[in-house]
Amino acid sequence: MKRVSLFEDATTLEEMVASAVNILENLGPGTWEVYEHPGMIIEGEEQHWHIGAVGNAAYRDLVTKALVSKELKEVIKRRNIKLIGYNDLKFWQ
Q1: How confident is the model over 49-66, as pLDDT tens digits?
Q2: Can you list the pairs that 5-13 forms with residues at least 24 positions away whose Cβ atoms lie under 8 Å?
Q3: Residue 37, domain extent
């Protein structure tokens, strides 16, 4: 299994989507691990954030939006990329 970062140095949603699409377009065969921390900003739930989480929360919200973007879904479908979880890996069972 190889690890890949989809968002590299992207800081905006548009940059994140473009980076992820580019990486997935050029991904070779094999099993790849994408390690991200998606999250959502829910209005009124700020009291549950810990110190330093405000910037992280905004970034994680962008990660979620990028991962569910139309562009990312299209490249995954077109390239026939199979999304799996750890339970699908034979060495994990």
Answers
A1: 566 555 677 888 899 999
A2: 5/34, 5/35, 6/34, 6/36, 6/66, 7/36, 7/63, 7/66, 12/62, 13/62, 13/65, 13/66, 13/69
A3: 2-92
Q: Which of 18-22, 65-69, 84-88 bottoms out in mean pLDDT, i.e. has the lowest? A: 84-88
The answer to whether residues 16 and 10 touch, using CB atoms and an 8 Å cutoff, is yes
**CA distance readout (Å), 1 to 25, 72, 83, 90:** 18, 21, 14, 11
| Residue 52 per-residue DSSP state | T
Stated pTM of the model = 0.81
> Domains in the chain: how many in total?
1
Burial 10-19 (b: 16+ CB within 10 A, else e): beeeeebbeb
